[in-house]
Write a structure and sequence with these properties.
With 47 residues, the chain is an all-alpha fold. The protein contains 1 helix and no strands. The longest helix has 41 residues. This is 12470_t:CDS:1.
C-alpha cells in the first residue's frame, strides 16, 4: 500500500466517523422530542 492510498483511507474513515457522530446526535434529538411529545400527550385529558 502506498502513502497516498493510506491517506485517502484515513480521510474516508474520519468522514464516516463524523457522519456517525452526527447521526447519533440526530437520533438523540428525535428521542428527546418523542419523550417531550409523549409527556405532553399524557397531560392532555382524553375526550
Amino acid at each position: 500500500m502506498n502513502a497516498w492510498y493510506l491517506r485517502k483511507l484515513v480521510v474516508e474513515i474520519l468522514q464516516a466517523k463524523k457522519l456517525s457522530d452526527l447521526q447519533k446526535q440526530t437520533i438523540q434529538a428525535v428521542e428527546k422530542k418523542t419523550e417531550l411529545l409523549n409527556a405532553a400527550n399524557a397531560n392532555i385529558p382524553s375526550m
